[in-house]
Design goal:
Blueprint lengths: L4 H12 L8 H25 L3 H28 L7 H18 L3 H30 L3 H27 L2
C-alpha cells in the first residue's frame, strides 16, 4: 500500500522550521508554490496513466486548481517584488515527490488508481495542516496570508473529494 509518508515528514519539517526558525514570507511562498507544483505533476501523471473516469476527473481538478493558485501566487510575488526563497523544506518536498512519482509510475490499472487517490488524501491532509499551523500563521504580508487562506479552503475541499473518491476506488 502506497502512502504519502515522505510528504508528511517533509512538511512536518516545515512545522519545525523551514530554516532553523519560522519560515519568512519568501520561504513560505516557495514552499506553497512547490507543494502546488507537486500536485500538478501528480495530477498530470494520473491523467497519463489512469483509465478510471472519476480518478481522471479528480486529477484534472487538481491540475486546474493548483495551476490557478500557483499562477495567483506568481502574480502576487511579482507585484510585491518578492523573490521566493528556496529552502530545505521545498528541496525535501521536491526530492520526495520525484521518488513518489517514480513509485506511482510503476503501477498500472486499479493499483495505480488506489495508490494515487490514497496519496492525494494523505498529501492534502499534510499540506492543509502545514498551511493552517505554520505557513498562514507565519506569513507577515496580508496579501500572501489571504492567498494562503483562500488556498486552504480550496485544498480542504480537495481533501474531502479525495476521501470520498478513496471509498469508491478499490
Amino acid at each position: 500500500m502506497f502512502k504519502a509518508i515522505g510528504f508528511a515528514a517533509a512538511l512536518s519539517l516545515a512545522a519545525g522550521a523551514a530554516c532553523a526558525q519560522a519560515p519568512n514570507d519568501a520561504q513560505i511562498a516557495h514552499i506553497a508554490y512547490t507543494a502546488g507544483s507537486i500536485d500538478i505533476a501528480a495530477g498530470k501523471q494520473a491523467l497519463s496513466i489512469s483509465k478510471d473516469k472519476a480518478v481522471r476527473d479528480f486529477a484534472q481538478e487538481m491540475v486546474r486548481d493548483h495551476t490557478a493558485v500557483n499562477d495567483q501566487a506568481l502574480a502576487l510575488v511579482k507585484k510585491l517584488g518578492v523573490t521566493p526563497q528556496d529552502n530545505a523544506t521545498s528541496q525535501g518536498l521536491s526530492k520526495t515527490a520525484a521518488e513518489k512519482l517514480k513509485t506511482l509510475g510503476a503501477l498500472k490499472g486499479k493499483a495505480f488508481d488506489k495508490a494515487y487517490v490514497e496519496n492525494e488524501v494523505a498529501y492534502h491532509k499534510t499540506v492543509n495542516g502545514a498551511l493552517s499551523t505554520v505557513l498562514i500563521p507565519n506569513a507577515k504580508n496580508a496579501e500572501l496570508k489571504s492567498l494562503l487562506q483562500t488556498g486552504l479552503k480550496l485544498f480542504e475541499e480537495h481533501q474531502h473529494h479525495a476521501e470520498m473518491l478513496a471509498t469508491n476506488v478499490k
